[in-house]
Amino acid sequence: MAASRRRLVSIAILVAVVFAAGLFVVDAGSAEPKPEPVPFHDTVTTGVVLENDPTPDAGGIEVPKVQVFYSQYEYVVGYRGVERFVDDRSGARHEERFGYPIAAYVTDYSTVDVDLSEEGYPVAAGSPSWTDAESAAYVVGSDARTPAGETVVPFGERDDAAAFAAAHGGTVVGWESLLDPEREFDVDDAGVVRDRVERRHARADDRVEDTNRLRERPVEVVVGEDAPTLEAAVEAAPPESTVVVPGGVHEVPNGDGLEIDRPITLAGRSDGDGTESQPVLRGDGNGSVVVLESDRAAVVDLRIDGVGDATEPDADDGEAGASDALEMAYGRSDAGIAVADADGVLVENVTIETPATGVLLRDAPESVVRNVSVHGSDRWDEGYMGVTAVRSPDAVVEDSRFVDGRDGIYLHRSDGIVYRNNHLVGNRIGVHLMYTSSALIADNRIEDASSTGIDVMTDPAHNAVVGNEIRGASQGIVTSGSRSYVAGNLVAGTDVGLTTGAGHSIYEGNALVANLEGIRANHLLPTNEVTGNDFVGNYEHATARLGTLRVWSEEGMGNFWHGAVGAPAADRPVLERSHSPTHPADRRLHRVDGAPTLARAPATDALSTLEGSVSGMRAEQIVDPDPLCEPANPDLLERADWEWDEPERACGSTAEHGGTGAN
């Protein structure tokens, strides 16, 4: 026992020495050579992504790159975009997270012929080599661009940099000038996504208002009065008119569905109140029931059933060879309403019972699906999607309900889509994004998803996931890609509430309540902002799967950790003691008697500090140096039926915080 105390005292002394000398100590007498550059595909990469990056040998795009070896990070970090490295390096706590750079190399355009494409992208006739970053020359302020914005172009020879600047504008600077704190680059980041949320809502409002005009077309044909059948009525209707479908059941026997190839509105006329009295379009169980093939066509106020059960195209589908594998797997199923090669379509106030897809949007940009109910198969593996959107950018799906089936919505290459105010129950995945960026997933309620509430896949960027409520899923929100904004979500009763797989992203104002794991940090690079979140009643508030130290605080404000101990600070609404939800003691504060006493022990604090600052002891940790002293999102916690029963320990109190269970 005495020996243990001596070891703890020694650790405390070592901590004091480390802090007296600074966090990162360099051996000035070391003669170890710099590490050599590695192939870029062996680095942990971040920055701009070119989904279909052509090969350099084909004269393809060559985004300027940096690779950096850090003293406290076991991987080589690869930055696509020199400006991305410069911006990261200037960020708060960058050195605390990574350590100091041991070596840095940049793309050497002196070794290839380089020009700019029409878009301003650097195009190289070959594969450039690497050159030492400190000796390189850099062209800033030129016409060179990447999909993320302006870019810095590095050269091993200053004369080559000067020649490029003469041809394409800009100024030649050295390494120290490039890193000058006064120099700023317009770097595309998650803050831009946050700032655009309201604008995206407003654009969606405009789109909905525009399609509402499709309801105002004059009535020209009434089924049963002016034409004997649905097909005859559609055939007789002139463009920009309405075909009225009266109450009752209307058979659609053709396996090809009711085809609408001109801009008309197909509108049901109910015999009573409510959707139960709406006219019914009934297919024969083969194929889609309604097929829209015209811009600004509309289907409103109807019920649809008798949908075919095919979820994949026939082997002899003539378009199969021209479609990618994922489209063939998800975008060629039978549907209650199938939209193909048509812009600005409206589907509104429609109820669909389907063993396959409810609404299929294929090449249908700026379409609107609203107030739609889709009831799929009870077993998700026997059903398909509520809505599928393939290459349908800037569409809006809102105020709808999707029950059972495979995915509530599946998005494939449909950038800019807005999916909001929907209710999803019993799907496999509620919202499933593939190759889709700049989407707004907002204010949806997702219940009992057998797999994931919201799953963002395949390296996208600029997605906003805000204001959603997810309960009872295996996983709540799973992210990937970069530069996304995840905020204001309530996730409760899941195995894993939220994962931080999207890098350079902002996760703020979320409430993770009564999950087995509140949040899982699984991005290799500690580049995310995680602040203003509430972690209450979870078995594990946070876990870290990969990477190194994550510091979850921005501008002196961290997160609320139910059970955290420490006295409130005098000048800020935070605790004086930092909190590490991955620390052996801190992780148990809210659920194990005696853990608060252990966590406040000087030796435990000393060991925790050492593990967070010394390279060899930087296990996969999360540290919040500024934990909030009371919840940040009381409205979300109220919706989760959780009450904070320690008001005497709120901000401004001098009592130390303890932990009690969730109600």
TrEMBL record:
Keywords: Repeat, Ubl conjugation pathway. SUPFAM superfamilies: NosL/MerB-like (SSF160387), Pectin lyase-like (SSF51126). It comes from the Archaea. InterPro entries: N2O_reductase_NosL, NosD_dom, Para_beta_helix_rpt-2, PbH1, Pectin_lyas_fold, Pectin_lyase_fold/virulence, SCF-Subunits/Alg-Epimerases. SMART domains: PbH1. Residues 243-287, 576-598 are annotated as: Disordered. Residues 386-563 form the Periplasmic copper-binding protein NosD beta helix domain. Signal peptide: none annotated. The keyword Repeat applies. Residues 576-593 have a biased composition (Basic and acidic residues). The keyword ATP-binding does not apply. Pathway: Protein modification; protein ubiquitination. PANTHER family: F-BOX ONLY PROTEIN, F-BOX ONLY PROTEIN 10. This is Parallel beta-helix repeat (Two copies).
